[in-house]
Amino acid sequence: MHKLVFILTLCLLGQAALAQDSTFIKVHFLYGSKPHPKYKNVEEKWFGGVLGGHVGIEAGSSNQILNFVRKGKFHWFPNKRNPHSTYIHLSEEMFYDLYKTSSDSIKRAIVYIPITTQQKQQLANISTAYLNQTPYDYALTGMRCAAATYEILAHLNIVPAYTQPKTATKILYPKKLRTKLFALASTNNWKVEKHEGSVKRIWDRD
Hints:
The chain is α+β, with helices and mostly antiparallel strands. It has helices at residues 2-20, 92-95, 117-132, 145-155, 164-170, 174-188, and strands at residues 22-31, 33-35, 53-59, 65-70, 85-90, 108-116, 192-195, 201-203.
């Protein structure tokens, strides 16, 4: 009887340890859009239009979304010596307010990706490093928000790693990354939350 109790205790402790050794990150997508013709006089045009949008990574329930943005004049081609880019932390409210539109009117999606505590620490290390010094320029033919987010996920071994030029080429805009993560979510049974946007705008589709 004592042996049985001892074995059950070990099992419960093992399960508790596994539970403590895992968490999740949330990949936030803000969909690109353009004004619906009926509302073109009241709705503003957004950078990138339908294929625009934005994406960032939140670690667990920290309410701090790490995302890559332009800082300064827009570059058509990457400039390593004078990067016009930065990584920033935004609260969820500020992240979805980037286009100065009510968050209730934004079409958005969140992909929940399970990670280990080791991956979470790795993400924290990457965040600290990238917030202190941007690793690449923001450019039309270079790294932008989707490619930058993919690059971080690759460091965490969630998606295959590419060279930086290949990452920039393959993950041109948020929809490219959404498609990949939605497919992984379907395969791995990850949680996905979606919120439809205002009918006053024409939104990017999945």
